[in-house]
Amino acid sequence: MTLPIRRHRPVADGRRGMWARDPLWEFDEFFNQMGSLLQSEGRMAWAPLADLTETDDAYVLEAELPGVGREDVDVQIGRRELTISGEMREQGPDGILHRRTRRTGRFEFQTALPGPVDGDTATARLNDGVLTVRLPKATDAGVTHVEIQPGE
């Protein structure tokens, strides 16, 4: 079992050698422990680390999924939403397991996209543990010009 590390911050008034406890630290620690507990019970999916960048013609998402096979990942694209879900399978140890810190089980990453995308031409590649999803921007913004006809 890994024991929590207590972290303290220096006092804001600049006194040397004096440390004060962050009043919100206990709440942060509580939520971290509850998240770990729920995750270990398989009730809650964890979210992989990811970056979303925008180029002139597309949005590009890179998510860290080391040890996950492409058959264990599902990518779903809505007009303005991206969802990546799947499962990282637990590897059986060859010997006696003394410590486990790697995440396993169900994962899900969901994000709203800054603009509409063309899901039909999107691509996804999993290479060296990094999933790269390229989402071309929609060329049609959904605005249509309607010509006004003369009245009768």
Unreliable stretches: none
Number of helices: 1
State mean pLDDT (0 to 100 scale).
Answer: 78
The helical percent reads 10-25%
What string gives the helices and strands in order?
A: EEHEEEEEEE
CATH architecture of the domain at 45-92 and 101-136: Sandwich
Strand percentage lies at 25-35%
Amino-to-carboxy terminus distance: 83 Å
Query: Order of strands across the biggest sheet?
Result: 3-4-9-8
Strand count, sense and barrel status of the largest sheet are: 4 strands, antiparallel
CATH topology label of the domain at 45-92 and 101-136? Immunoglobulin-like
Q: From the alpha carbons, calculate the radius of gyration and give it in angstroms.
A: 23 Å
Class from helix and strand fractions: mainly beta
Rough shape? elongated
CATH top-level class of the domain at 45-92 and 101-136: Mainly Beta
How many beta-strand runs? 9
